[in-house]
């Protein structure tokens, strides 16, 4: 008997008492969140855990966002920035960096020549320091946040911040292309030598705007 047959056999046995065509409800008795910290503490926890993962965290009022974004691009020395079609144009109002559109026909080599990318997000999880993208118009295609070396992600606070993963899942559509980001891309070998920028951007800057 193969491993596949063993697994499918277990699934069939587990569903033996479920009438055909009906779904069996899944018990979800676990805690949805740990403690009651309030919005300000939840946002502070998100900032702390993002920094723990070596993301660069910036906080500002919504009205200050264009200046913050312009400053981040200038500090990076960016000459081009990839912009999703649905991004708020006001976020780049104070920057004269050349805009690059998110196009389906862009090749990996073309994306690699872009200095930076800026997106919004779907939700941010405070307990894990995770940003989730779902391909919405202000986030664009998944690959635009994986190929360029510098990603600026704007999180609207407190409305886009949740405490836990269960709370995040309630806001997300599993049919969408979900990308879960916990800090900049990094990997380590058996000797724990850390290498950044292998599977995605080497630098992740998160702006908590609100």
How would you summarize the topology of this molecule?
Elements: H1 3-14, H2 38-52, E1 56-60, H3 65-76, E2 80-83, E3 98-101, H4 108-112, E4 116-119, E5 123-125, E6 130-133, E7 150-156, E8 161-162, H5 165-171, E9 179-181, E10 186-188, E11 194-196, E12 203-209
Parallel strand pairs: 1-12, 2-3, 2-4, 4-7, 5-8, 7-12
Antiparallel strand pairs: 5-6, 6-9, 10-11
CATH fold topology: Rossmann fold
CATH architecture: 3-Layer(aba) Sandwich
Radius of gyration: 20 Å
CATH class: Alpha Beta
Helix content: 10-25%
Largest sheet: 6 strands, parallel
User: Can you identify the CATH superfamily?
Assistant: NagB/RpiA/CoA transferase-like
Instruction: Please count the beta strands (DSSP E, at least 2 residues each).
Output: 12
């Amino acid at each position: 008997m193969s491993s596949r047959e063993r697994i499918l056999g277990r699934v069939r046995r587990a569903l033996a008492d479920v009438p055909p065509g009906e779904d069996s409800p899944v018990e979800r008795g676990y805690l949805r969140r740990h403690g009651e910290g309030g919005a300000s503490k939840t946002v502070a926890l998100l900032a702390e855990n993002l920094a723990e993962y070596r993301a660069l965290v910036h906080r500002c009022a919504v009205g200050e966002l264009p200046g913050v974004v312009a400053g981040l691009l200038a500090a990076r020395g960016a000459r081009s920035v990839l912009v999703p079609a649905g991004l708020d144009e006001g976020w780049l109002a104070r920057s004269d960096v050349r805009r690059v559109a998110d196009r389906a026909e862009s090749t990996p080599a073309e994306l690699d020549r872009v200095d930076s990318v800026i997106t919004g997000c779907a939700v941010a999880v405070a307990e894990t320091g995770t940003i989730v993208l779902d391909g919405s118009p202000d986030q664009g295609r998944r690959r635009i946040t994986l190929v360029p070396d510098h990603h600026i992600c704007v999180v609207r606070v407190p409305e886009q911040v949740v405490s836990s993963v269960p709370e995040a899942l309630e806001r997300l559509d599993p049919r969408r292309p979900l990308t879960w980001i916990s800090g900049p891309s990094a990997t380590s070998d058996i000797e724990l030598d850390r290498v950044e920028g292998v599977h995605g951007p080497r630098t992740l800057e998160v702006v908590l705007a609100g």
